[in-house]
Amino acid sequence: MLRLRELSRNVEAVLGEVAEKFSTYQQQQGLNCRAGCGECCLQPTIESSALEMLPLALHLFDQGSAEHTLQQFEQEPLKQSCMFYQKLSFDGRKGQCTVYQQRPSICRMFGASGYRDKMGQTSLSVCKVIKADHPEHYSQSLIMLTSTPPPLMMVASEALKELDYSFGNNLQPINLALKQALETVLFNAGLSGYDDDTQIA
Ligand code: SF4
Hints:
Layout: H1 2-29, H2 39-42, E1 47-48, H3 54-62, H4 66-75, E2 85-87, E3 95-97, H5 105-109, E4 112-116, E5 122-126, H6 128-133, H7 135-143, H8 153-163, H9 165-168, E6 172-173, H10 174-192, H11 194-200
The protein binds iron/sulfur cluster.
């Protein structure tokens, strides 16, 4: 468990840098998310690696709810959208993240981020809600692509993979990634003994 805890701290450090970098770009360019919007959390295509879900898995373990969460996976068919999204409107478009501090990198980059196109040039990906809310800022950001390039998603992904390639390389639906991280935490806890873990937390 010691190694998992150290790995988790390193993941948290990278996720913190990712949040800072991407949120700074969004604010500078005026591409802010709509207040209370949870459209991205509803997407069944949100993917993460088990490595990125490790801080959340350890958090649940420390709260004593890791086994219960894993049982939920076994009792119900896996939800397509994230199980930690709390809907606050009838259609689900408004809501909130219940694990905001432990959310993975995709949740920190989704609003506005850069990627390399087929020609190797930097392009800008912006959420459709933000585009609709801030069309002028979106156009201006496209004009400023060279002078003010957006942070690249792939750089964040590589920084995470460098921490543990085998655990961080496999992207899967977010709920499945958490399931794998929980299984890893519980397996390691079983090997090392719970008493040590509570002292290290
Ligand atoms: S972890 Fe939080 S921000 Fe990410 S998809 Fe789930 S509810 Fe949304």
